[in-house]
Specification:
Blueprint lengths: L3 E2 L14 E2 L3 H10 L3 H14 L2 H12 L2 E2 H8 L3 H13 L3 E6 L2 E6 L2 H14 L2
Antiparallel strand pairs: 1-2, 3-5, 4-5
Length: 128
């Protein structure tokens, strides 16, 4: 193990750093061994980007409550059907919502329990 001392140590505001450089090789090995491959990391980052839009979050919260059609989502969110449809397409491509035909309507729902869990845990986290 090598120790490199930094002189005139001034931490960046908000981000604390070690005062000395000390490598913990066992931890580095464990982290490296458990790291998913680059494609998985990329796909995960892309998934979380989809959650990074407040309109899409509002749609997901609407679907958290009920399986509903585009007309109902648009009315509930006070938005146009075309704006909702555009966001639903993104949510569907990310496999976060699914749809089924019911007569002349298309009913949207959360794709699975994972989506419900992610949203629920996100809320728990921000409300801590």
């Amino acid at each position: 193990m090598q120790n490199i001392h930094h002189h005139n140590y001034e931490p960046e505001p908000g981000a604390e750093q070690c005062e000395v450089f000390e490598l913990h090789e066992d931890k580095v090995r464990a982290v490296s061994a458990s790291m998913p491959d680059e494609n998985e990391i990329y796909d995960l980052a892309e998934l979380f980007k989809v959650f990074g839009d407040s309109t899409r979050m509002r749609i997901l919260f609407a679907l958290f409550e009920a399986d509903i059609c585009v007309c109902d989502i648009a009315a509930a969110l006070n938005m146009t059907q075309s704006a909702i449809s555009h966001q639903l397409r993104i949510l569907k491509n990310a496999k976060l919502v699914s749809s089924r035909r019911d007569g002349k309507s298309v009913i949207y729902s959360l794709a699975d329990e994972h989506v419900r869990t992610i949203i629920g845990q996100g809320r728990d986290h921000i409300e801590e």
